[in-house]
């Protein structure tokens, strides 16, 4: 169980960097970061993040606990490992972000409903079709908040969807499916079996 993050009403919590050092996987390597920005500059998702990894690490040092733990940076990271490969100081950026995400859930900063709803939609598509169909994942996710909210979110993103259709990034045909769905089912069953066995050991 993770030790609670230092609790203070001050905006800048100077104990936060130490807490990350002691509790977050890879956090002990944060001191190596020289703020060069190669990670943020290399990140394909950087524009979708509240703060790129370089800035997030600076915010940790500055003690901006609330801003860091409620940031969307960790959730938007796709774990492509480009930052890890390119970091000149071998900072395990991806591991740090992954564990910060776990800590943000554990400490009540993340919005578990939003995240679990999206995961459920993603997982449903992967299991049903053997692929993730962005239209169906998005629709299922939006409508998991109710019909009114689903329609509202859909309309808010209509322009993006139309742009994707026009540029061929999104199709309007039936969802693509893998051929060997029985094989996929067997793999998933095996994975569930291993997971259950390991959870008991
Ligand atoms: S690339 Fe490495 S050293 Fe440079 S800012 Fe990112 S984590 Fe820090
Ligand atoms: S692992 Fe995450 S933070 Fe690093 S480059 Fe990829 S998406 Fe960006």
Q: Report the mean per-residue pLDDT as an integer.
A: 88
How many domains would you count in the coordinates?
Answer: 2
Ligands in the model, by name, code or SMILES, are: iron/sulfur cluster
Termini, distance in Å? 18 Å
Give the CATH superfamily of the largest domain.
Answer: Alpha-helical ferredoxin
Overall CATH architecture of the largest domain:
Orthogonal Bundle
Radius of gyration, in Å, reads: 20 Å
Structural class: mainly alpha
Estimated share of beta-strand residues: under 5%
Main sheet properties? none
Instruction: Output the helix-strand order.
Output: HHHHHHHHHHHH
CATH domain class name of the largest domain: Mainly Alpha
Helix content percent band: 55-70%
- Tell me the total number of β-strands: 0
Shape: globular
> In oligomeric terms, what are we looking at?
single chain
- Please mark out the parts with pLDDT under 50 across 5 or more consecutive residues, or reply none: none
